């Protein structure tokens, strides 16, 4: 699937447009095709690594 993602924390130069493997889903999950997503201040904080200590994010990471 086509996505804009980060593979390491840092400034906007870390954003990559490329192909990622489509996520596998369980029997009780659904996969939704998204045409667009909003990016908010939390996303740039995640991109720059300010929220690494929360442990919620795993790279590569799609923001938005």
Summarize the structure in short.
Helices cover 11% and strands 19% of the residues. It is an alpha+beta fold.
Describe what you observe in this structure.
The chain is an alpha+beta fold and 64 residues long. It has one domain. Helix content is 11%, strand content 19%. The chain contains 1 helix and 3 strands. Strands 2-1-3 form a 3-stranded antiparallel sheet, with no helix packed on it. Strand 1 and strand 2 form a beta hairpin. The longest helix has 7 residues. It is globular and about 35 Å long. The mean pLDDT is 91.
Low-confidence stretches: none
Order of strands side by side in the largest beta sheet? 2-1-3
How would the global form be characterised?
globular
Q: Assign the structural class, choosing from mainly alpha, mainly beta, alpha/beta, alpha+beta, or little secondary structure.
A: alpha+beta
Rounded mean pLDDT score: 91
Strand content: 15-25%
| Helix proportion | 10-25%
Q: Find the count of extended strands (DSSP E, 2+ residues).
A: 3
Q: Let me know the largest β-sheet.
A: 3 strands, antiparallel
Features:
single chain, 3 strands, globular, alpha+beta, 19% strand
Topology:
Elements: E1 2-6, E2 15-19, H1 41-47, E3 61-62
Antiparallel strand pairs: 1-2, 1-3
């Amino acid at each position: 699937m086509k996505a804009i993602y980060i593979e390491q924390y840092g400034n906007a130069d870390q954003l990559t447009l490329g192909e990622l493997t489509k996520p596998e889903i369980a029997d009780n999950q659904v996969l939704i095709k998204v045409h667009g997503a909003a990016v908010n201040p939390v996303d740039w904080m995640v991109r720059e690594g300010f929220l690494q200590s929360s442990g919620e994010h795993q790279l590569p990471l799609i923001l938005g």
